[in-house]
Amino acid sequence: MHVTQTLAEGLKREFKVVVPAADIASRADVQLAEMKDKVRINGFRPGKVPVAHLKRLYGRSVMADIVNNMVGEANKKIVDDNHIKLAMEPKLDFEGGDEGVTSVLDGKADFAWTVSVEVLPSFEVGDLSGIKIEKPVAKVEDAEVQERLEGLARRNLAYTDKPEGAEAADKDRVIVDFVGKIDGEPFEGGTGTDISVDLGSGSFIPGFEEKLVGVKAGEEKVIEATFPGNYMSQTLAGKTATFDVTVKAVQQPGELKIDDELAKSVGLDSLDKLKEVIGESIGREFAAAARRKVKRQLLDALDGKFAFDLPPTLLEQEFNNVWAQVEQDMKRSGRSFEDESTTEEAAKADYRKIAARRVRLGLVLAEIGEKNKIQVSEEEVTRAVVERARQFPGQEQQVWEFYRKTPAAVAELRAPIFEDKVVDYLLELAEVTEKPVSKDELLKDDEDEAAS
What we know:
about 450 residues, Chitinase A, domain 3, Trigger factor, domain 2, four-stranded antiparallel beta sheet, 11 strands, about 20% strand
């Protein structure tokens, strides 16, 4: 096997591999000779089958196995001899195409092909200690716990019909049928039957709930309301609609009780225990939000420390994944690039930068993890699979079997675990200071922060 490098351009490499036909034939003869003592053919005693006869029967399949093995051997030789890390699976171009491969299998030609690879960039990680991180910390206030308690109590409220002729008031529940129209024509998704509207909840578009205050059971009413400009359906966003409403019932809520009985309704012993559980839940939410912001700061710091060429195919694949999600989101929302005050070309340029950042940081984290021997244990992967299975009640066994048989899916679970472990390692090296913040500031979206 002769391997010659023919291209070294950036992160692209090409190699020409040639295996003389005589070498392939020699290896085939050895394998056929080894088969003599193993195969059983009618008319021949064990071990007495002529090699020439075996060649007529099995020569083509033996040659195919040898050719496949040689491709693997060549790939390994290229990686080992050149001390490279592949970014993608090698791309193979066989000389002569299908006809050339047929000639090789028939023993009439040398086996020659080109191996095109993209390699991972080489870079020094350097000293990563001393990265400054500001960790936002919000205190779980009693008022927040009380608000959650009240929300839970409201969801458990019993509603009863108000006396005949009674008007709907704020906090009442109105049961309605309605048909929504734009320019006098019903629109898709604008019809509802036996819909519960809790007045004052803000669950419906602005103006709808407010105009139900004062209605009575049996009343029919036409309500005009305008969809918000950022409504998820672009065909309705900003449009004014009329709703032909039939009021079927007006109900009043029972007394809002926050007591031990409320706690028992959710499987807890007492109100104090319920408050404790809610407080812990809010604390976990705050901790997760703080973690996201800390991780974002850390990744921003890493992104500023490294600049190197990225494997073109790897970058293109990541961009295609990002862009497919963008197109899917826009299609679902019915919005266009014009609605976002941009163009498709400008949006692609922005998202290509996002894809480049993801690829770069992925390579940096992988290098840091490898150099510091950070690994994901099988126990951690198993826990992730179990957690995933729990998300599909009644289908746990099917989910488990899917991951057992699909290594690529397991790799997708392993990747974020590995990333988080590398992040934890880096945070131990960083200078982390805590900054007290309000709940609203802690939970503020990163996009909102960037815009402010």
